[in-house]
Amino acid sequence: MSLKINELCVNCDVCEPVCPNKAIAQGETIYVIDPALCTECVGHHDEPQCVVVCPVECIDPDPDHPETQTELLAKLRRLSGEAA
Question: The domain containing residue 13 runs over which residues?
Fold first, then answer.
């Protein structure tokens, strides 16, 4: 499933540059994750890098966007232009 940044975000700027899919951007008040781009780093890393670097642990699974590992990998392939 996609990840979501919650209200504990302190805008520390460490999550955005580590996202391999450019899914993280500054929102109106806190950083936000685009669920259409988030693959939880599947295909890039063993763990979501935003979660690894977040100093306040404000990144959670997004219950509005449930996806399996297989679905996340298929999304990565679509994003990178590869055939599924």
Answer: 3-80
